[in-house]
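Running this now, will post back.
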Amino acid sequence: MEFTASQIAGILEGEVDGNPEIAVHKLSKIEEGEKGSLTFLANPKYTSYIYSTKASVTIVNKDFVPEQALDTTLIKVDDAYKSFSKLLEYYNQVKNNKVGIENPVFTSDSAVYGDGFYLGAFSYLGNNVVIGDNVKIYPNVYVGDNVTIADNVVVFAGSKIYSESVIGKNCVIHSGAIIGADGFGFTPNEKGEYDKVPQTGNVIIEDNVDVGAGTTIDRATLGSTILRRGVKLDNQIQIAHNVEIGEHTAIAAQTGVAGSTKIGKHCLIGGQVGIVGHIVIGDRVKIQAQSGIGRNVKDDEVIQGSPALNYGDYNKSYVHFKNLPKIINRINELEKRIDGGASN
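Update: finished.
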């Protein structure tokens, strides 16, 4: 795809300073800019690169005044970073705006879909599937019976959406994600073996949720596993049965949340965090990476460690953890002096 500086300025409601007809067909960092590329300058630390960049077009703030001659056409906007992000979103929309059904695919006669639908090759739509407008399903995707997918959802290649799952508007499901697999439900019997507990619930994903590549969200034993509006999940996360995650909570890669735990709104959870089942984590909680959460957590706590401690307490204690060998040596030395004094 190719755009002129004038077209880009129109999208961003910006002003062109330079050649309005110069064209770009790719994006670049400002320090790595090449002819035909578009870049941006938002961080003052990178200002020096604007005088050496080979990028054909650069997005800058309106208050930017060059101190040297430039070889790049400028597009001046109110906020260069936000404008570049808007342009990336627009670029993705154009790039991903595929329409139509490729072959071979399987679609049940009872499956229905709206306008602007794209279904990639080797995909499967089960019975009574209902799909909204402008949904894009890439190749090798499985959509089970009775699944509902609302408008403007993108499901990338290789994802599996099990039966009864419900996905809201404007969601993105990245490659290899699995929605609605059975929860890890087993009970020991008198033989010392495990009997499977049927997982009869589903997964509900509300609007504007992103699910990272390779992430698994298990269906509920009864009821629903629920991701509320605006939740963002990184790659390779495990969400167990009957978990509920509150609005606009973000979770980094390799985190595992055990069954029936409730996580509040606007939480930030770092990578490789382990959270036990059947606990409640409050709103606006921040959990540092590699923490182990084995208890309920109140609103607004910042915690770290395994088992996790209050973040401030952890940092104070860590000073002593590092000095523990020295402290032990001092204690041993004091005991020797005390014992020596007692013998005299």
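The chain has a mean pLDDT of 94. More later if anyone needs it.
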